[in-house]
Design a protein that fits this description.
The structure is a single chain. Helices cover 39% and strands 14% of the residues. It has 530 residues and is an alpha+beta fold. Among the domains are: 133 residues, no CATH class; 55 residues, no CATH class. The strands form three sheets. Strands 1, 2, 3, 4, 5, 6, 11, 12, 13, 14, 15 and 16 form a twelve-stranded mixed β-sheet that branches. Helix 8 packs antiparallel against helix 9, helix 10 runs antiparallel to helix 14 and helix 14 crosses helix 19.
Length: 530
């Protein structure tokens, strides 16, 4: 009987094993075959291709049955011109061996088969590299920064290139793969504009340490070079005597300059204005190129509805069906507590939020304050809880083990998050929120927070995105706020969040710049040209 049971179990096991479907093998999509023309073509030794250690290159020549493909003069000319003029798109022609390729081209008719094959491979390898850089940037932000969370852009360069090659439409492939955003186009225009400026040979502007600000009708040695800068950039027109007097004409020109640079356009020349004036043409060009790279990292497929934040511009725009419906001033993180770069989706509005003190603020702000004054937290309506959830009296708080407690601020108008926050998935525990420092929005420099983004007039924003006039009109929101009861509301309408960073663009053929508040531009440019 035992033998019978054993036999039945084996049969069931075998039967189950047969019924379990095997996973389908992963098949890599092959690019289409390359249509070769009657021009000269030679066989390529695969060992030459393998030197490049590029799977993409190998697949490309698999599609041509390992024959050279660039026999057509028109196609070669197009590729060469693109690589040689890649600086017009903020790229470096020598990243694509433009000079070396031109030398090959100059003796094309005398190349032996081996050299022709080498030239062909170099053309393909460098053109594909160029296309990749245009589509998703030369560098990978995840390898440079720890606080940049962007969706990785994938690009099947062989399919795009071979399709354009076969249809004789190489001249459209470069335009088609670049970002379509208006800001990217404005950056390309900015690069074109700045290249039209002459060489910059104006000296550094220096103000005597005893002079903090220069105001209308002041006399100062620095005014001479300030006027030269204003004339150079076109903020001042005509001619000027270039004397040391801060006259009305210069005053109005300074205001125009300040407006283009996101400074308080009051005509008062302080440290911020001097710093912006001291940027040379070359430094501004490098800044534009760094921003072009960033915009190649960002998604090209914008959602129908989205929030877009430009951190250095201290601005939030709500865009719905390609129309900007709301604009808000914002406060962002300081250089020590940077606001992270994020692409995400808005999920929840929280009215009357509590605030739990995060570790960084606990260590750098709360603990030192508590050591000075045990009533510090109580004065801010912050309750201390132990690991069991029991309330701890401030006098019993162990200053040597501050991490053993949880610190929670009660809801209310003076809560650090204000009366509202908006949640979205991210790895940095940040969100958009109101603030108890509402006077900050009147400042020009608003790099003041601990990493989260603070929004001006947030309840109007909440009413707008909840989009339910009966359930969530302003009167009902205000009534709920008055209860001080924490309430979570799901955002039904889908909004993407693009919390990004850019410091340059153009507007109506005018260059526009913002202060590089996290000092990222110079370092990024150096890495691009390394």
């Amino acid at each position: 009987m035992r033998k019978l049971y054993f036999l039945v179990i084996i049969c069931l096991f075998v039967s189950c094993k047969k019924d379990t479907p095997k996973p389908a093998p992963i098949v890599k999509k092959k690019p289409p075959l390359i249509i070769l023309t009657d021009e000269r073509k030679v066989e390529i030794d695969t060992t030459t291709i393998n030197v490049f250690k590029s799977e993409t290159l190998k697949q490309f020549y698999d599609a041509s049955e390992n024959k050279t493909v660039w026999g057509n003069l028109k196609k070669r000319t197009y590729v060469l011109s693109q690589l040689e003029e890649s600086d017009k798109l903020g790229l470096d022609p020598e990243d694509y061996k433009a000079s070396k390729l031109r030398k090959f081209e100059s003796r094309i008719s005398s190349l032996n088969d081996k050299d022709l094959a080498t030239y062909d491979i170099l053309l393909t390898y460098n053109f594909e590299k160029y296309l990749n850089h245009l589509y998703k940037g030369k560098l990978d932000p995840k390898k440079i920064y720890t606080d940049w969370d962007l969706e990785e852009k994938t690009f099947d360069v062989n399919s795009v290139l071979i399709k354009a090659f076969n249809k004789n439409k190489l001249d459209s492939v470069v335009d088609n793969i670049q970002p379509k955003s208006e800001t990217y186009k404005e950056l390309l225009k900015a690069l074109e504009i700045i290249d039209e400026f002459p060489n910059d040979e104006i000296g550094t502007i220096a103000i005597d340490s005893s002079t903090r600000k220069i105001t209308l009708n002041d006399t100062n040695n620095a005014i001479v070079n300030i006027k030269k800068r204003l004339l150079f950039w076109g903020d001042m027109s005509g001619k000027d005597t270039l004397n040391r007097i801060y006259n009305k004409k210069t005053f109005e020109s300074v205001k125009r300059f300040q407006e283009r640079h996101g400074l308080a356009s009051d005509g008062v020349i302080g440290a911020g204005t001097i710093s912006a004036l001291n940027y040379s043409k070359e430094k501004r060009k490098q800044q534009i190129i760094a921003n072009l790279e960033r915009w190649r990292w960002y998604t090209s497929d914008f959602a129908d509805n989205y929030f877009i934040i430009n951190i250095p511009n201290y601005s939030l725009n709500v865009v719905e069906d390609k129309d900007t419906t709301l604009v808000r001033n914002i406060v962002v993180g300081t250089s020590k507590r940077k606001t992270p770069i994020i692409t995400s989706t808005l999920k929840t509005v929280v009215f009357n939020p509590t605030w739990t003190v995060p570790p960084t603020i606990l260590k750098e702000d709360v603990v030192p304050a508590m050591k000075r004054n045990r009533n510090y937290l109580a004065n801010k309506s912050i309750t201390i809880y132990d690991t069991t959830g029991k309330v701890v009296d401030p006098t019993a708080w162990n200053e040597n083990k501050p991490g053993n407690y949880r610190y929670v601020q009660s809801p209310g108008y003076n809560n650090s998050l204000g009366v509202m926050k908006i949640l979205f998935p991210n790895h940095h525990s940040v969100y958009l929120h109101d603030t108890n420092h509402r006077n900050y929005f009147g400042r020009n420099n608003r790099s003041l927070s601990s990493g989260c983004v603070r929004i001006e007039n947030p309840l109007e924003l909440a009413e707008h995105i909840l989009d339910d006039p009966e359930k969530w009109n302003r009167e009902k929101i205000d009534t709920l706020i008055a209860t001080k009861k924490t309430t979570n509301i799901k955002i039904v309408k889908k909004y993407a969040l693009y919390q990004w960073y850019w410091t340059a663009w153009s507007k109506k053929n005018q260059l526009v710049f913002r202060a590089d508040i996290y000092n990222l531009d110079s370092d990024l440019y150096a890495k691009l040209r390394n």
